[in-house]
Amino acid sequence: MNRRKEKLIKWLFTVTAFASLAFLVGIVLVLFKEALPIFKIISPKAFLLGTSWYPTAEPPEFGILPLILASLWVTAGALVICVPLGVGSALYLHELAGNKQRAVLKPVIEILASVPSIVYGFFGMVVLAPFLQTAFDLPIGLTAFTTSVILGVMATPTVASIAEDALSYVPRSFREASFAVGADRWQTLTKVIIPAAGSGISTAVILGMSRAIGETMTVLMVAGGSAVIPESIFDPVRPMTAAIAAEMGEAPVGSDHYHALFAIALILFLITFAFNIAAELISRRYRLKLGLSR
Amino acid sequence: MHDVNIDHERQMGMEGFHPALVRGPVGINLNSLGEADMFGSEPKITARGVNFYYGSKRALNNINIAFAARRVTAIIGPSGCGKSTFIRLLNRMHELVPGSRFEGEILLDGLDILSPACDAADLRKRVGMVFQKPNPFPKTVFENISYGLEVNGMTDKRAIEEKVVDSLRKAALWGEVKDRLKDSALGLSGGQQQRLCIARCLAVSPEVILFDEPCASLDPISTGKIEELILELKKEYTIVIVTHNMQQAARVSDRTAFFLMGDLIEEGRTEQIFKAPRDRRTEDYITGRFG
Q: Is residue B291 in some structural domain?
């Protein structure tokens, strides 16, 4: 009886543990299955490097370069905002904030991460876009820049939280050793602690990047939606996620447009997958460097 | 003539003792013990009436002790007796722990090191420290040593190189690492890492070196090397070593201080402490009755 129960429990946990794997495989399979048909009518090169995205024109054009560039463009902009903010917060929390401030600031930063993206989108549309439009005298407030700002703020808690973890993993003994040879706090921070946490901080940045590039709702609401190659940060853009979300409803199932959208999703998946692999490799190197694992 | 004098003092075992100690630990007037008038030289460090608190918890009670220049003083006592707390005051490492508080004064060549007027970074250049667990930076062997020089404003590459080599030689590590200067320090063995930490400490030319249980995580052979090194270093440096290992204290130190529950129970020549302790509690500890 007992043995059967044990077997059952073991089996149950095995199933739960492998569920994620099954989901991942399922998603990847569907992505490939639905994406590949588009490459019968257009070469991967023309698809990736084509500069016009007119999926409903006659004949349709499926060049997603403007979408890829838009995604990279707003993500780069978001990084410019979330890296200094996030790493700065992490350094402050780790180095300067007393216990009392930490007790308030850390949860606040984490709550920022839990605000639903539609709320960010709303804020961007109603508050930030009109403000930027008047401030920079733009024809339209919904631009790559607006999107970057919102995405940057959204990714900040991710960066701050992971970078702070990385800083706190630096053994206290490094700090003591540095002080013991007469280094001051600033020297200790810049020459010992940050380099030691460097790979952890880069992981934080990469994960922040994944967060920004994969975000959909916000970019759909504030990016402006124009599928042309952006020339300035104040151009409206149509990142990959926004294109999929906006057009999927109108694309007839099984049509070329439908397959093209899946192919965009596949590319996006490969990009974030690469980010995650990079983050993992870097953090592994970091643990080795600190002698934290074997 | 002078040498003869020192030898005479050595035979008597009374070198390096100073009137500053007169007030003595826990109210014992050392004058009455007959040692006080036979001091060899000015003490390097003198602590007077030192109390220390972590929050409301008192960790040290009225510590009075002097450390003779170019001698090794061992601090022994059971875990939690305050010995590590005490030596961390000597280079103000206690400041890294928030919520601590002290009373009393500690003089380094007459300079009140606990006063806010004394710069902690400057103090730590004069009073170096080697820690319980080897803690090299995750940098190369070379950079581990040059770090202390660079943060102290040394920029001349040749001078830095010379100093690095010199420090590694002094720490008896040069032969083992001279071909590995550009390798990560974390690839060295535990004993080598600890000698690297000693070299790092020597590089900034301290006058005093504090060892906080430097062999706690080392095997007997590495321990032996560190002890040899300490005996060599005392020719130039004043050394205070905290140790759990009484044989170690007996082997390396000239003087020994016994701490118990935040009190300095007894301080004296190592030989005397181990052969004829004056206090019953010291005797109980060194004969292994507790601790």
A: no
Instruction: Name the token pair of A145.
Output: 């820049």
Closest residue to B124, CB basis, from A175, A180, A291:
A180
Residue of B nearest to A195 (CA): B138
Q: Check if A175 contacts B (Cβ < 8 Å).
A: yes
Residue at B128 is within a domain: yes
The yes/no answer to whether this complex scores an ipTM above 0.85 is no
* Cβ–Cβ below 8 Å for A182 and B129: no
Q: Is A294 on the interface with B (CB under 8 A)?
A: no
**Does B93 reside within a domain?**
yes
In a domain, A169, yes or no: yes
CB pairs below 8 Å between A and B: how many? 77
Q: What is the pLDDT of residues A26-72, one digit of tens each?
A: 999 999 999 999 999 999 999 999 999 999 888 899 999 999 999 99
Domain count, chain A: 1
Contact B131 A184 (CB under 8 A): no
Query: Computed from CA positions of residues B7, B169, B218, B259, in that sequence, does the dihedral angle turn out positive or negative?
Result: positive
- Interface membership of A278 toward B (CB under 8 Å): no
DSSP letter string, A125-161:
IIIIHHHHHHHTT-S-S-SHHHHHHHHHHHHHHHHHH
- The SS3 of residue A291 is coil
User: Tens digit of pLDDT for each residue in A192-205?
Assistant: 999 888 888 988 99
CB atoms A191 and B152 under 8 Å: no
Q: What do you get for the CA distance between the two ends of chain B, in Å?
A: 45
Which of A179-183, B19-23, B79-83 holds the top average pLDDT? A179-183
Q: What is the CATH number of the domain that holds B279?
A: 3.40.50.300
Tell me what the mean pLDDT of segment A144-159 comes to: 94
Residue holding tokens 């990084």? Answer: A79
Give the domain range for residue B32: 2-286
To 10 degrees, what angle do helices A172-180 and B190-203 make? Answer: 30
Average pLDDT, chain B: 85
CB contact (8 A) between residue B147 and residue A175: no
Residue A14 lies in a domain: no
Number of domains chain B is built from: 1
Q: Bridge-partner residues for B47, per DSSP?
A: B65, B106
The secondary structure of residue A62, as a DSSP letter, is: E
Query: Does the CB of A293 have a partner CB in chain B at under 8 Å?
Result: no
**Which residues of B fall within a CB distance of 8 Å from A183?**
121, 147-148, 151
What does the alpha-carbon distance between residue A20 and residue A36 come to, in Å, rounded to a whole number? Answer: 24
Q: Nearest-CA distance from B185 to chain A in Å?
A: 10
Q: Could you tell me which chain A residue has the CA closest to the CA of B187?
A: A291
Q: Tell me if A2 is assigned to some domain.
A: no
As a whole number of Å, the CA-based R_g of chain B is 19
Q: Which of A99, A184, A291 is the closest to B121 by Cβ?
A: A184
Backbone dihedral region of B13: left (phi > 0), alpha (psi from -120 to 50 degrees) or beta? left
Q: Which domain holds residue A53?
A: 45-289
> B138 and A99: CB-CB below 8 Å?
no
Cα-Cα end-to-end distance for chain A: 41
CATH number at residue A253: 1.10.3720.10
